[in-house]
Amino acid sequence: MTAELVRGQNHPLPHSRLEIRVTAGAPVMACATLGDDRGTVLGIEWVAHPGSPTLPGIEVSRQAAAGLRFHVDLEAVPDRAHLVHVLLALPEGVGGPARFGTTAAPFAAVTATDGTEIASFTITGLEAESAVVALELYRRQGAWKVRAVGQGYAGGLAELFGDQGLPGAREFAAGIQEAVARHMASAIQAPLTGTPDGVRVRSDRSATATQPGQTAAGAAGAAGASPGGSSATGATPHQRPGTPGQPTGPADGQGQQPAAAAHGTSGGRVNYTHPRRQTTAPPTPPPASPPAQPGQTPRPVAGDATGWSMEERLYNQVWGMFEDLARATAAYRSAVDFAESRMDQELDRVLSDPRSRIGGTGDAAREVARAKRDQLTDQAREALDRDLGQLAAESDVVEPALPPAYARWDNPVWHAYRVPMDNPMALRLGDLHLPERTDLRIPMLVRLPLERGLWIDSGRSGSEAALMLDEGQLRRLAMDNAVGHAARLLAAYPPGEFTVHVIDAAGSAAMSLAPLVGAGVLSQPPASGAAGVSSVLAKLTQRVDLVQMAIRGGAADSLPPDLDTGEQLLIVNDFPHGFDDRAVTQLRYLADEGPAVGVHLMMVADREDASAYGPVLDPLWRSLLRITPVADDHLADPWVGHAWTFEPLTMPPGSQILRRVLEQVAEARRAWRR
User: Fold this and answer.
1) Residue 482: helix, strand or coil by DSSP?
2) What does pTM read for this prediction?
3) In 3D, which of 609, 535, 541, 538 has the Cα closest to residue 573?
4) Structure confidence at residue 519 (pLDDT)
5) Number of H helices, E strands in the chain
6) DSSP state of 191
7) d(CA 134, CA 70)
8) Phi, psi angles (nearest 5°) of residue 126
9) How many CA atoms lie within 13 A of 93 on its CB side?
10) Which helix (H) or strand (E) segment is 150 a member of?
């Protein structure tokens, strides 16, 4: 799975032929430089740029664009070159942004030639800089690695080239800028709902990207949902301490995933690409594990992964646990398959000779082959049990330390809940487990803001748990689940940063919606009837249009003063009841265009109910992350081929925690409005 790097972090490159895909919030130009063992660029012949896009082993894009590709063949890089720097710069004198601080954070992904993502880096923390060293590929003991750099230069390419020791840096940079400016008429404008070539966009979050002409939803759905909550996506790996060389962990995040909450900043920007997080300091070092006795495994510690904060360290640790469980189980299953295959081969060899079938020779051969099979299987199970035991011990330590947005409803952290002042990083949707040990459950975390909508399937999907319930019970459970997720989102965001709308066209979810309605945390009462559906959809569609136009024009300060620029969640119950063709079109528009501008969709529906629309709604379903109100093993993991069982979060019987949390949220919202 992908290693999501932070500044200064490195990652091994398993392939020599690579692509580096870059997406940005405005057209940027790509350059690459080769450096010697001291990092010095010896001359302009060691620079690839739009006017001269090729070097031995390196090719860059010929024009400025919001989506770029670098083609790299490390075996063809000259022996004298020890470093390859990947550079991005804003074109000058063409009317575009003059500094990276006014655009969405650039995102770079290193991929194999088949598109498999190896590592990614979101270049946050840029302000006055107009050029940046995004990544560094470097030789180390005969192998190549990639390092996330993110070093920006307010003086642009001239200052960057000068820092790398290039002679005549200022004149050379001016020539590149002039050549690019002449071709800016064909530059690709910044995408609003996705990016070209299927590249995911992340800032501190993950984002779904699209093929040209394909909706963001369709691209994500076509890839399938991963246990991380994104299409092979959601996973956002990190390097786990104590497991050198193993890429681990999560989401993007499978991942896609858009931005954090809308913030007004100086200059009137509306920022949906990343939260305000400190990104200039090195990551907080993880806590040291308690010393282990000789021959014993070190005791696990909550937050032992890298990250800028305890919240991020716990997020990375959870995804590390997910990847470790996936790896350990995959190794066990592979060993069992090998043992079975070896037994079959040995029996085929012995029994292919007719003489061995006479007397007890064949029976003896079978016993020997089975004994070998059982020995290999027992060894594999012993190794698996050891790994699962370590993960269970780690889970016992991590679970109590999780913040509310990551915690189950029965976690004591909810009893000490206070309304936060910072935007959350991720949200827990449920738990994941595999059949080898069903009691070992890994939190399913998705990055926030949601990069794609959620579909809570209220149909009898075929799982044993769903088939045991009647349709009415299943629909009630699905809506209860939606209310729980909405409550967790409201509780995770600061006051005024998150708004929930509800469409309940038939009014059938009044009992499930009672906690939200009673606490007064909804923007308005649940909409019912055709008129209510039309009103809510028109309001949110208009908001998407206005914010899109403001972002395109760089005029966020011109938005109407009464426009709620906080993130929006629309819960739709029992779709398509109450929806005409126009309303369906608006809903699809919100699913495709909404996430990029802070409008998110949560559908509670049975897909069979919408079958009358035919295939026209297929892109809508594919755009949403499907979860279930009961246990179901529908989450496919294309990385190792597992089918993960998803367990929804449930409220402890008789618990009043939901009511108390929503009361605090409501009180904080009232105080914020005063």
Assistant:
1) helix
2) 0.60
3) 609
4) 94
5) 12, 23
6) P
7) 12
8) -80, 140
9) 10
10) strand 143-153
Tokens of 447: 């990055």
As to burial, measured by CB atoms within 10 angstroms (0-12 exposed, 13-18 middle, 19+ buried), residue 179 is: middle
Largest CA distance in the chain: 94
Two tokens, residue 303: 């937050």
Structure tokens at 47: 């620079």
Query: Which pLDDT score is estimated for 280?
Result: 40
623 token code pair: 């755009």
Span of 296-300, 516-520, 576-580 with lowest mean pLDDT: 296-300
| The predicted structure's pLDDT at residue 500 | 96
SS3 string, 568-628, reads EEEEEEEECCCCCHHHHHHHHHHHHHCHHHCEEEEEEECHHHHHHHHHHHHHHHHHCEEEC
Give the 3-state secondary structure of residue 554.
coil
Looking up tokens 């809510």, which residue turns up? 536
Does the CA dihedral 19-25-26-29 come out positive or negative? negative
The pLDDT, as a whole number, for residue 242 is 32
Backbone angles phi, psi at 402, to 5 degrees: -70, 145
Average pLDDT over residues 643-656: 92
3-state secondary structure 269-312: CECCCCCCCCCCCCCCCCCCCCCCCCCCCCCCCCCCCCCCCHHH
Cβ contact 572:547 at 8 Å: no
Whole-angstrom CA distances from 544 to 399, 467, 492, 540 are: 38, 39, 23, 6
State the Cα–Cα distance between residues 602 and 567, nearest whole angstrom: 13
Average pLDDT score over the chain: 80
Q: Which residues pair with 109 in a beta bridge?
A: 21, 120
pLDDT tens per residue, range 351-403: 777 766 666 777 787 888 889 999 999 999 999 999 999 999 999 999 999 99
What is the average per-residue pLDDT within 523-537? 93
Strand partners, 540: none
Query: If you compute the radius of gyration of the chain from its CA atoms, what whole number of angstroms results?
Result: 27
Residue 544: pLDDT above 60? yes
In one-letter notation, the amino acid at residue 592 is: D
